[in-house]
Amino acid sequence: MRDRDIKVYRPRSLNGLLRLYSLDPDALLYAGGTAIALRAAAGRERPFRLPPRLIMLGNVPELGRITRTPRHLDIGAGVTLGRALSTGRNVLPAVLAQAIASVGTPPVRNLGTIGGNLCAGREDGGAVPSALAVLDGQVELRSAAGARWVRAWLAEPRRGEVLTRVRIPMEEWQAQGFRRLASGLTLAAAARLGRGALETLHFCLAGSDFGLLRSRELEDSLKNARLPLAPRARQGFLRELEERLTIPGLGSYARATAVRLAGWFLDRLDEAGPG
Ligand SMILES: Cc1cc2nc3c(=O)[nH]c(=O)nc-3n(C[C@H](O)[C@H](O)[C@H](O)COP(=O)(O)OP(=O)(O)OC[C@H]3O[C@@H](n4cnc5c(N)ncnc54)[C@H](O)[C@@H]3O)c2cc1C
Fold first, then answer.
1. Residue 237 contacts residue 221 (beta carbons within 8 Å)
2. CA separation (Å) from 47 to 3, 28, 50, 143?
3. Using CA atoms, how far apart are residues 147 and 126, in angstroms rounded to an integer?
4. CATH code for the structural domain at 3-56
5. Rounded CA gap, 175 and 92, in Å?
6. Pairing relation of β-strands 197-207 and 225-226?
7. Rounded distance, CA 168 to CA 146, Å?
8. pLDDT per residue over 10-45, tens digit each?
9. CA–CA separation, 18 vs 21, rounded Å?
């Protein structure tokens, strides 16, 4: 087949997209194309050939919507990272805004979409998935057969499914933190504080060596701890985290760096809580 035999579909509604994709689930969904381009650049195939059938998502209005209710914020899968940042400036939780801002460069964020980011795999360290993990974000996956909601950081569409939107609960967080190092090691965290104590902690580490690490048990070990944290509580948390990071393939330097990142967020809690 010659390259010019590529067939490009441009559905104009969500129903049209789902119908088309159910008839041709081997077609490639194409949102901003930035992760597809990155994959092509990393591959051995020269010149890179696009698959024979592409379904462009850019003309589907339902995928471009951002809506807000008192309980949650919905971001359409086709919303670019740049638009999510500018439109949601006063609405996006800080940890998610920082995670989005850490992706690529402004031109990449102006093309790349939130849905494409969640479906592209974790080679880049999982900045957006880790922020969504601490916010308990969900995604809607739809096919011609129906819809289901799953945790955003586990978004893996099945054959024939399209990620249509991301849902973020609107909750108050008194402390939020995000750090991403050049190695790709990422920390995202959010906490609720009240009456001089740490009420709730959500905490996620991500790295190309171990994927995403979020442990409710570890988070709960600091539930209702007084602020500033007692040295024993702090050290116990960091020691437990270090044990959980004893993972084949994760070197001691990366492990120590991850524990240092966690310590950085615990310091922020001490600053945010009444001294
Ligand atoms: C120079 C450069 C730097 C980058 N840096 C980063 C970085 O720092 N961090 C990072 O996370 N990423 C990075 N990326 C990767 C990429 O830009 C982002 O992940 C981006 O958000 C992908 O979105 P997209 O719309 O371009 O996805 P696309 O490339 O269009 O699609 C990616 C994959 O998702 C599938 N897909 C897309 N939308 C949907 C949908 N709605 N439902 C189901 N499947 C879908 C596609 O079929 C494809 O398999 C970088 C890319 C480049 C080129």
1. yes
2. 11, 18, 10, 33
3. 25
4. 3.30.43
5. 14
6. antiparallel
7. 21
8. 999 999 999 999 999 999 999 999 998 888 777 755
9. 5
CATH topology of domain 175-272: Enolase-like; domain 1 (3.30.390)
In this predicted model, what pLDDT tens digit does every residue of 202-233 receive, in sequence order? 999 999 888 899 999 999 999 999 999 999 99
Q: Helix, strand or coil for residue 94?
A: helix
- Buried residues in 99-133 as b, exposed as e (16+ CB within 10 A): bbbbbbeeebbebbbbbbbbbbebebbbbbbbbbb
- Nearest atom of ligand 1 to the alpha carbon of 34: 26
Nearest ligand 1 atom to the CA of 28 is 47
Work out the pLDDT band at 54, boundaries 50, 70, 90: very high
Closest by Cα among 195, 205, 180 to 262: 205
d(CA 263, CA 275): 18
DSSP 181: -
Pocket of ligand 1 (CB under 6 A): 28-38, 57, 77, 81, 103-104, 108, 111-113, 115-117, 119-120, 124, 127, 157, 162-163
pLDDT of residue 74: 97
State the Cα–Cα distance between residues 225 and 94, nearest whole angstrom: 24
In the chain, where are the structural domains located?
A: 3-56, 62-169, 175-272
Instruction: Write the CATH number of the domain with boundaries 62-169.
Output: 3.30.465.10
CB 163 within 8 A of CB 119: yes
Tell me the C-alpha distance between 215 and 113, whole Å.
Answer: 28
Residue among 240, 261, 89, 65 at smallest CA distance from 178: 261
Q: How far apart are CA 15 and CA 62, in angstroms?
A: 10
User: What separation in Å is there between the alpha carbon of 217 and the centre of ligand 1?
Assistant: 32
